[in-house]
Amino acid sequence: MLTYYYAANTCSLAAHLSLVHAGAPHEAVRLDFKNQQQRSPEYLAINPKGRVPALVTERGVLTETPAILQYIAQAWPASKLAPLDDPWALAQMNSFNSYLCSTVHVAHAHKGRGARWADDPAAWEAMKRKVPQSVGDAFAFIEDGALRGPWVLGETFSTSDYYLLTIARWLEGDGVDLAKLPRVLEHRARMLALPLVADVIAKQEG
Amino acid sequence: MLTYYYAANTCSLAAHLSLVHAGAPHEAVRLDFKNQQQRSPEYLAINPKGRVPALVTERGVLTETPAILQYIAQAWPASKLAPLDDPWALAQMNSFNSYLCSTVHVAHAHKGRGARWADDPAAWEAMKRKVPQSVGDAFAFIEDGALRGPWVLGETFSTSDYYLLTIARWLEGDGVDLAKLPRVLEHRARMLALPLVADVIAKQEG
User: Fold this and answer.
1) pLDDT at A12
2) CB < 8 Å to A76, chain B
3) Which chain B residues in 72-131 lie under 8 Å from chain A, judged by CB atoms?
4) Are strands B2-6 and B26-30 parallel, antiparallel or unpaired?
């Protein structure tokens, strides 16, 4: 039995969707970010990073979304959540997921998490002003081809589709010009129409 | 035959070391960042991200260090660069590599790449001032246990050791308090003493 720690409206949606998709037995535990529950001593004992997601297994705790996503795909291969038999295709999935994690999510985080990278409130405001452009530029790279269609990897559905949906839900809040992202929006709409996706979002945010 | 694009003093050292370790036939091509060669039309045609590293294979171009590292390990399994037979251990490697990519490297990048996240030069200066603390905090997490010892994953050498060395070479330039990182420094010294490491660094920076 796994325990999965998440918070609403965070990147933790991606692996949560993958866990449900895989049929992996798990208990999902919600952290309340508004009350800084991710900074509680109880949670820091589980995940010293003070972030979500964290997946607690019999062998220990796993953090970082790209790593959790491939782990779920490998531990539940019947889920077909990753092209496990093709190292090149798997590398493309991991490349896309790493880009979401280290470039797109990071650009987004400058809207509300500026204190990670500067102590000056004026700098936080400067960071916020740049988010529509920096996130927009990152999504332009996805729009222009990294999202191959119909799924991220082409004909093969994978964890990257859940991860992209997760980050693409932030576009309006990030002030990105949606008119430039028709393919991303079409993918997002198709993902949101999946019953599994609607169910997990309702559970996370209900 | 692979082609590997790198630049001196960047994160592209990690996969370069892994390619040489694996005995993967490749041509290593150096980009001159001082002349913005990563922004040349020729290179952008190869890697539209305008970054390093990029690994060109018969099947296409692969970017993002964590993805390239696992790909090399899988494509050259005799290299034993990753615990491929144990999805949990492999996930720990990928978790560590993702942390280096999305947290540690990102913190470091605020020293010289502030324009990615703000347009205001005063904000860039505020970002620079925070780097010793933000990079130091990220390395404290590594010092306090993510680096298990003697190697990152414990008894098993992996790509994470090359990647950690790569980022740890920036500690002095980032103004981090080295006295707090004896385990990281000991690992770095041990890695730098490996002939393969010395050779590749000399080639990259010679």
Assistant:
1) 98
2) none
3) 74-75, 87-88, 90-92, 94-95, 97-99, 101-102, 105-107, 110, 116-120, 122-123, 126-127, 129-130
4) parallel
Asked whether the beta carbons of residue A101 and residue B101 sit closer than 8 angstroms, the reply is: yes
Alpha carbons A55 and B92: distance in angstroms, whole number? 12
What number is the ipTM of this complex?
A: 0.98
Q: Is-contact B9 B35, C-beta < 8 A? A: no
User: Which structural domains are found in chain A, ordered by start?
Assistant: 2-80+199-205 (3.40.30.10), 87-194 (1.20.1050.10)
Q: Do A118 and B102 touch (CB under 8 A)?
A: no
Q: How many CB atoms lie within 10 A of CB A37?
A: 16
What's the CA gap between A23 and A6, in Å, rounded?
17
Nearest to A204 by CA among A20, A2, A79: A20
Distance CA A144, CA A165 (A): 17
The DSSP-derived string for B87-140 is: HHHHHHHHHHHHHIIIIIHHHHHTTT-GGGT-S-HHHHHHHHHHHHHHHHHHHH
Q: Using an 8 Å Cβ cutoff, are A9 and A166 in contact?
A: no
C-alpha distance across the termini of chain A, in Å? 24
Between positions 145 and 204 of B, the ones with CB within 8 A of A are 145
Secondary structure (3-state) at A129: helix
For residue B206, what pLDDT band results from cuts at 50, 70 and 90?
confident
What CA–CA distance (Å, rounded) separates B125 from B148?
Answer: 35
Q: Which residue has the tokens 């409206």?
A: A9
A124 to chain B: closest CA residue: B123
10-residue block means of pLDDT along chain A (206 residues)? 96 98 98 93 96 97 98 98 98 98 98 98 98 98 98 98 98 98 98 98 94
Q: Tokens for B79?
A: 């290299």
Q: How far apart are CA B167 and CA B164, in angstroms?
A: 5
Residue whose C-alpha is closest to residue B102's, from A66, A25, A79: A66
Provide the pLDDT for residue B70: 98
Q: What is the largest CA-CA distance in chain B?
A: 50
Question: B25: closest CA among B75, B68, B70?
Answer: B75
pLDDT at B139: 98
